[in-house]
Amino acid sequence: MDAHPPDPTPDTEAYLRLLTQHDRWLATYVYSLVASAADAQDILQEVKVTMWKQFARFEQGTNFRAWARKIATNQILNYRRAVQKLPNAQLEEQFIEVVAAEIDRRAEVLDRKADALRVCLRKLPEAHRKIVVWRYYEDCGVEEIAAKSERSVEAVYRLLSRVRCVLNECVSRQLEQPHAI
Questions:
Q1: What is the predicted pLDDT for the residue at 159?
Q2: How far apart are CA 31 and CA 44, in angstroms?
């Protein structure tokens, strides 16, 4: 029984927003469990099509990542059974579930760190925040930053070093506070 795709307007927008938000995580999950990059790409495409077809069954406000992981896990297991004809499919499923749980755990930690970093970046003085944005978000070289900020290259290196220390300490403090982020 093939599910019909959801209504193309509100559900399409909701699906695309959630998929975009979790796309990198989903790709990392699939690629980490499939040895061949070409096969992983095919599986990822099938996962997204299946998710789209079943999106009408997804309950808004529930854990999209867990829902997507279950669909991806099933696609990966189907692939492994079909291609490799594994005799011990139950062991494979348990292995994938353990790996999936670890990926989820690490993703949550990284999400908390990213949230803490956003909080800490907002606390920086505007001039320091500009330097960070130029260096890490716009990928500017130190020489270019020196020219833009009218500082010496050495001064930029020292400032970046100090700002990294401040951000590192701030992120650590933020992570120590339960539910502060």
A1: 95
A2: 8
- Residue 64's nearest CA partner among 112, 115, 21, 110 is 21
User: Is the torsion defined by CA of 24, 27, 33, 38 positive or negative?
Assistant: negative
Per the CB < 8 A criterion, the answer to whether 154 and 162 are in contact is no
User: Is residue 142 within 8 Å of 95, Cβ to Cβ?
Assistant: no
pLDDT band at 181 (very low <50, low <70, confident <90, very high): low
Asked if 25 and 107 count as a contact pair (C-beta separation under 8 A), the reply is yes
- Whether 73 contacts 26, CB under 8 Å: no
- 35: tokens are 């040895």
Among 45-54, 55-64, 116-125, the range scoring the smallest mean pLDDT is 55-64
Q: d(Cα 86, Cα 89) in Å, to the nearest integer?
A: 6
Give the number of residues written for the chain.
Answer: 181
User: Given the structure tokens 């760190």, which residue do they identify?
Assistant: 113
Question: DSSP letter at 139?
Answer: -
